[in-house]
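Mods, move this if it's the wrong board.
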Amino acid sequence: MSDEVSSALKELDYYGYTVLPQFLKPEETQDLLGRVESAFSSSRKMTYSGVPERDFDDKIVYNLPVKDRKFLTLLLDPFVKSILMKKLNDKFYRFMENDCPNYFLSYYNARSSGKKLDLHIDSHIPSPGGYTWSMQVVYLLEDSTVDNGCTVVIPGSHKSGEYTDRSFENTVDITGKAGDLIMWDSRLWHGTRENICGDSRWALI
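Not the wrong board. Structure tokens:
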């Protein structure tokens, strides 16, 4: 696993993202997809006035850990923890051992997108000095394609120290198969294509 961790960290540093094909076994992926669909069918659609218009067509299940404890197991995966500890652990925090995570979970949702999402950064503030504020961890539960609204990125943009230029057209499609794991630096310029076929593409985020 150390070689895979090292390779993923190099890709995160250089490109700002990494993709690990078939990280989840097919039976595990199907099990998680079933749990997400069940949670979605029993959840109440958010209708408050603050919901962005682009989210109206999205399917979202909020706060997965309280919906089903099975989702918690993914947070404890040794590979994912190794990556996040290297990228996010606060080296100046003295009250925990270095081999323990000292980052926190900001959110944990399931999502199947509809409309196009403009280029943006999830760190909210650019950081040109190389410091990673946060990371996105995405488990694909269904295939992610150009037609059903896959993620698009600008490789290397996490090092720009700039807010996104939403007119930038030279994007790279991050397609993937169910079971793939995608991780990116929150400073990376990214968005999604519009889901033009209407098929779901559930992912854990």
